[in-house]
Specification:
This protein is an alpha+beta fold. It is built from three helices and five strands. The chain has a five-stranded mixed sheet with strand order 2-1-5-3-4. The longest helix is centred in the middle third of the chain and has 9 residues, at 31-39.
């Protein structure tokens, strides 16, 4: 399944790109699975998307959690939480 990934703010800076296209392996079916797949790249990816890091996720422009099923051609986005003040 092919999807689009987008990274925003500090995550974009950490991983060095704002977007990419990926072909998911058959066993990656959720947004959380996508995050884990990206962490497996190691280095900045593992650090920026680590489980203890506060990372917001969206699927098809809707905020979601890791259990959300990924659809063919969907956009999955990762970004840090935003604080006001």
């Amino acid at each position: 399944m092919k999807i689009s990934l987008k990274y925003f703010a500090a995550l974009r800076e950490a991983v060095g790109t704002g977007q990419e296209q990926v072909n998911l392996p058959p066993d990656v079916t959720t947004v959380g699975g996508v995050r884990e797949l990206l962490r497996e790249r190691g280095g900045a990816w593992a650090e920026a998307l680590a489980p203890e890091r506060a990372v917001r996720m969206a699927h098809k422009h809707v905020m979601c959690d890791g259990d959300t099923q990924v659809e063919e051609g969907a956009e999955v986005a990762f970004f840090p939480p935003v604080t006001g003040g």
